[in-house]
From TrEMBL:
GO terms for molecular function: aminoacyl-tRNA deacylase activity; ATP binding; leucine-tRNA ligase activity. Residues 38-146 form the Methionyl/Leucyl tRNA synthetase domain. The gene is leuS. InterPro entries: aa-tRNA-synth_I_CS (IPR001412), aa-tRNA-synth_Ia (IPR002300), Leu-tRNA-ligase (IPR002302), Leu_tRNA-synth_edit (IPR025709), M/V/L/I-tRNA-synth_anticd-bd (IPR013155), Methionyl/Leucyl_tRNA_Synth (IPR015413), Rossmann-like_a/b/a_fold (IPR014729), tRNAsynth_Ia_anticodon-bd (IPR009080). This is Leucine--tRNA ligase. Residues 863-974 form the Methionyl/Valyl/Leucyl/Isoleucyl-tRNA synthetase anticodon-binding domain.
Length: 1012
RNA sequence: GCUCAAGUGGCGGAAUUGGUAGACGCGCUGGAUUCAAAAUCCAGUUCUUCGGAGUGCGGGUUCGAUUCCCGCCUUGAGUACCA
């Protein structure tokens, strides 16, 4: 019987689906275990081999935990709102729901054929109204909450209203907007409803605010910081500008400290925790207000200008020799003196063109301008020059720095460059070459009342003195800011919000979900409103509590609805709870389900979510806990980032040309160059080594070929023509293992074939490649390892691999590639190794005419092989070292074949060990062995150490630490006897060549090392 | 610039507490089988001037270092000069 993997895999996938083998129960006496993959977005391109890597790892773990007696929850679903479907809709007019449905079908088919043990009965989709009903509900809860710093948790907005009614806001200690004026209970009660709502909005955890956003006119949308690369949109590379816009935001900063502290409680990698810490960006220091000394422009009557700065080093305040403002700082125009105006304005203009990224990374170029204004030092009252410099960013801190050149390298470089004094305030420290940035072991000097103090003491004392002057106070700063929650897009959750008098009102819970309206086109409106502005039926009737036609808006009973939709992170911030009770219509998940499953025990996904999804969902979970909806503080106990699978891209070189002397193109002119378009040259060693331009022989041949192509028959040998080969990505499916391009295939490509119809391909020897069948010419491409992505045309689709080798081979191979967390290149050719292993395994169990298993008593060697495999595989899975366990299986099968093992007592438990990795073949053999129940719930074999006890040890005998030969000695042999035996051995004597060793190191059971 | 990873044969990688470097697999070479091919099986495969050398480079600790320490180089990922 042959190993017919296609038949076997289909059979068991169908069987598992029919029997609901992997359906998880919400009530069980077994301990629970929750294994989750990061929410996939169902893109139109389908899966490539990089996607299932994490899914396979989590599936192995989930299956292993079932063998270990756990009730395992291992669900899957789709984060199905998103920009790609919307962009496709804009291009084709197809409703995003339709394309999303198609994409999900493709995903599901691809996932199913890999044999995952998902409980599909719990599938969720964020774009499904029965799901986003609860996303809307959570949004309403956030709106109806404020953060009480005294109780350190979110509370219902009602508790805040009752405080306002009783005593005003003087004693309220809340996370809220910066500019809130004080009011008494009497004030509050006399405010109009609109005034009250405006005030409450400044306290709510989600609120409307005029915020500066990254507006991308070309995409008609706002972009998150991480969607902008080098100042342009990541998608499409369009220009991005700062623009004020009314946006929904989330007061995530209220949770900054808890988000930081919580990291200590969870089992994530240090690098991931570190990036969250950096993102939250806690710094302890002080705010200091510097008064601007009046000058020709900065002498407004009555009020003096102040420059507030935040510093982590208030102890160095006597080292301030200048101040630096971000060029965009509001005060710049108000304080710059007339004679510096021209210079400052020119500098601001120049800065605006630099991307923020550029300003950050480039430390070598020091630029700045003096405003002509001076600020007053709070203690010495000396004038301090105020500069602007683009190393200070407007968006961070206060957008201004008190520059202490002796203590900060950037300030130091700036001062050196502009000849600003660098006062030294550190005792006994040389600052003639560079600044001294360390906080440890400094003694402050030249600093009046701070002299002789350490960093800690001086900081404390400086803050006290600043507070006395009312020019500063101690402050903890977080860089985490309000998270923008609006998107000017169609394909997202609609807000359950309508507007009365411009004030947002929540729609009551019982009327949810508010469904996305139908629109004709998916673009923003001509007036710049979001796509929902195109909907005709998008108004809220407060009498019928339904969505009605816009024409009915009367602003008394019928009101306009919100036009923005929610961002991608809305639905993904809580989905892990929905899996616990996916069909519940009354609550987002029942209390029983929430209590049973608690939180995710193992979460596997890409590191790209480090500061987005993983921070936002922690925030929502903490909020839901505060409001009593869940009991947990952290959603993901253990988290593993799988590494990227890299693709091997292929390049061919398109020729482009430069004429050194244009006047010499006389007789043929531009027509000549026109005829030389769309020509590609085969990759060669000289191309890969950047020696193309010096390969005279080849260039000569190439040029005569070009003349031939252009129909040029004169003697011009094109000396003035410089040929520049440009690398162009080519789809890897048209390239074989020897890097040869399938030219006819490329020309028939449905997507790009047209572009190459008239292309000319030139071989290694400089001649045109003939495309009639019997030509032996080859066209070679260059290879490079890059991120696997559709845009680089290097994706490898798992479908073909499953057809050719089977899902079990794919699963094993993906694990075999290397450590889960590390990035690694994909090479399909290597899959024959694991596939060959499965064939050998099959032959071990199945003879020519059926099962090859006997009741034979296992030999000592059989037992040793089995038990060392049990031990190793169990250790490997527990430590997520899946690659090494695949090797272990191979070694075990090689050994069992060598031992000619047929013993059921060995071969049966071995199947269980392997089944998490290769579930189909093991399930088939398990049933061939006569079992009626699925192998998936069979207990994991128990390791028994007695089978690994050895009676002898093959000692490595080293000389000066270098192993020279080995010697088999009894295990129980004592040190002295070992030394005697080794020293008497002929090989030892030969190696010593008569020398007497200085020392002999013997570690019984390990090694012998002879020194000297 | 800063932060975090990672550098081991032709390639992916292994060596879990400092103890036989290169397990396992790919590829390659030779052989068996076959009319032939595929498939399968067997043997070999770090380099080498055959003394040795060797885990990015230079030091150090140790009887012994891929593993620990110091300094550097390169590559990748992230990034917000948090003042």
């Amino acid at each position: 019987m042959n190993y017919n993997f296609n038949e076997i895999e289909k059979k068991w996938q169908d069987h598992w689906a029919k029997q609901q083998t992997f359906k998880a129960k919400n009530t069980s006496d077994l301990p629970k275990y929750y294994v989750l993959d990061m929410f996939p977005y169902p893109s139109g391109a389908g899966l490539h081999v990089g996607h299932p890597l994490g899914y396979i790892a989590s599936d192995i773990y989930a299956r292993y935990k079932r063998h270990k007696g756990f009730n395992v929850l291992h669900p899957q679903g789709y984060d199905s709102f998103g920009l790609p479907a919307e962009q496709y809709a804009i291009q084709t007019g197809q409703h995003p729901a339709v394309t999303t449905e198609e994409n999900i079908k493709t995903y599901r088919r691809q996932l199913d054929q890999i044999g995952f043990s998902f409980d599909w009965s719990r599938e969720v989709r964020t774009s499904d109204p029965s799901y986003y009903k609860w996303t809307q509900w959570i949004f309403i809860q956030l709106f109806e909450s404020w953060y009480n710093i005294d109780s350190n948790r979110a509370e219902s907005i009602d508790t805040l209203i009752s405080v306002f009614t009783a005593e005003g806001n003087a004693k309220v200690n809340a996370v809220c907007d910066d500019a809130i004026s004080l009011f008494s209970a009497a004030d509050w009660n006399s405010f109009s409803s609109k005034e009250q709502q405006e005030i409450l909005l400044k306290y709510r955890l989600t609120y409307l605010a005029e915020t500066e956003v990254n507006w991308c006119p070309a995409l008609g949308t706002v972009l998150a910081n991480d969607e902008i690369v080098n100042g342009v949109s990541e998608r499409g590379g369009h220009a991005v500008m700062r623009k004020k816009m009314t946006q929904w935001s989330m007061r995530i900063s209220a949770y900054a400290e808890r988000l930081l502290k919580g990291l200590d409680q969870i089992d994530w990698t240090d690098s991931l925790k570190e990036s969250q810490r950096n993102w939250i960006g806690k710094s302890v220091g002080a705010t200091v207000k510097f008064k601007v000394i009046p000058n020709d422009t900065a002498s407004v009557e009555g009020e003096l200008h102040q420059i507030p700065v935040f510093t982590t080093r208030p102890d160095t305040i006597f080292g301030v020799s200048f101040m630096t403002l971000a060029p965009e700082h509001d005060l710049v125009s108000q304080i710059t003196t007339d004679d510096h105006k021209a210079e400052v304005e020119a500098y601001i203009k120049a800065t605006a063109k630099r991307s923020e990224r550029d300003r950050i990374a480039d430390v070598k170029t020091i630029t700045g301008a003096f405003t002509g204004a001076y600020a007053e030092h709070p203690f010495t009252k000396e004038p301090i020059p105020v500069w602007i410099g683009d190393y200070v960013l407007a968006g961070y801190g206060t957008g201004a720095v008190m520059s202490v050149p002796c203590g900060d390298q950037r300030d130091y470089d700036f001062a050196k460059h502009f000849n600003i004094p660098i006062p030294n305030i550190f005792e006994g420290i040389d600052i003639s070459e560079e600044a001294y940035g360390a906080k440890d072991n400094v003694i402050i000097a030249n600093s009046d009342f701070l002299n002789g103090l350490s960093y800690k003491e001086a900081t404390k004392k400086a803050i006290v003195a600043l507070e006395k002057l009312e020019q500063g106070e101690g402050k903890t700063n977080y860089r985490l800011r309000g998270a923008v929650f609006s998107r000017q897009r169609y394909w997202g959750e609609p807000f359950p919000v309508y507007y009365v008098n411009d004030m947002p009102q929540m729609i009551a819970k019982e009327h949810l979900p508010i469904r996305l309206p139908e629109i004709e086109k998916y673009l923003p409106t001509e007036t710049g409103e979001p796509p929902l502005g195109r909907a005709d039926v998008w108004a809220w009737c407060t009498e019928t509590n339904t969505v009605v036609a816009n024409t009915k808006v009367n602003n008394t009973t019928i009101f306009p609805l919100e036009l923005n939709t929610m961002p991608g992170w809305a639905g993904s911030s809580w989905y892990f709870f929905r899996y616990m009770d996916a069909q519940n219509d009354a609550v987002f998940a029942s209390e029983n389900a929430l209590n049973y499953w608690e939180s995710v025990d193992l979460y596997i996904g890409g590191s790209e979510h480090a500061t987005g999804h993983l921070l936002y969902s922690r925030f929502w979970v903490k909020f839901l806990k505060d409001r009593g909806f869940v009991k947990i503080e952290e959603p993901f106990k253990k988290l593993i980032n799988q590494g990227m699978i890299l693709g091997t891209s292929a390049f061919m070189y398109r020729l482009s040309y430069i004429y050194i002397n244009e006047s010499e193109i006389d007789e043929t002119g531009t027509e000549f160059l026109f005829k030389l378009k769309n020509i590609y040259i085969s990759s060669s060693e000289s191309l890969n080594n950047n020696e193309f331009q010096s390969n005279i022989d080849y260039l000569g041949k190439l040029k005569s070929t070009l003349k031939e192509i252009a129909g040029l028959s004169n003697n011009n040998n094109l000396e003035d023509l410089t040929i520049i080969p440009l690398p162009i990505h080519v789809k890897v499916q048209y390239v074989n293992a020897s890097n040869e391009l399938d030219i006819p295939g490329l020309k028939n490509d449905s997507e790009f074939g047209e572009d190459y119809k008239n292309a000319i391909f030139i071989s290694d020897d400089g001649g045109i490649i003939s495309l009639d069948g019997d030509s032996s010419d080859v066209f070679k491409v260059s290879r490079e390892v890059e991120k696997m992505s559709k845009s680089k045309y290097n994706v490898v689709n798992p479908d073909q691999i499953v057809t050719d080798y089977g899902a079990d081979s794919l699963r094993l191979y993906e694990m075999f590639l290397g450590p889960l967390e590390q990035a690694k290149p994909w090479n399909t050719a290597g899959i024959t190794g694991v596939h060959g292993f499965l064939k050998k395994l099959w032959k071990l169990y199945m003879g020519e005419d059926g099962l090859n298993i006997t009741e034979a008593t296992p030999t000592k060697d059989n037992l040793k092989t089995l038990h060392k495999t049990i031990k190793k595989v169990e250790e490997d899975i527990e430590s997520f070292s899946f690659n090494t366990s695949v090797s272990t299986f191979m070694i075990a099968v090689n050994e069992l074949i060598a031992q000619k093992c047929t013993s059921k007592e060995i071969l049966e438990p071995f199947l269980v060990l392997l089944s998490p990795y290769a579930p189909h073949i093991t399930e088939e053999l398990w049933h061939q062995l006569g079992h009626q129940h699925s192998i998936s719930t069979t207990p994991f074999p128990e390791f028994d150490a007695q089978h690994l006890v050895e009676s002898s040890k093959n000692y490595p005998i080293s000389f000066n630490g270098k192993m020279k030969f080995t010697l088999e000695l009894p295990m129980e042999m004592q040190k002295e006897d070992i030394e005697k035996t080794v020293m008497a051995h002929e090989k030892t004597i030969a190696h010593l060549e008569g020398r007497t060793p200085k020392k002999v190191i013997i570690i019984p059971g390990k090694i012998v090392n002879i020194v000297g």
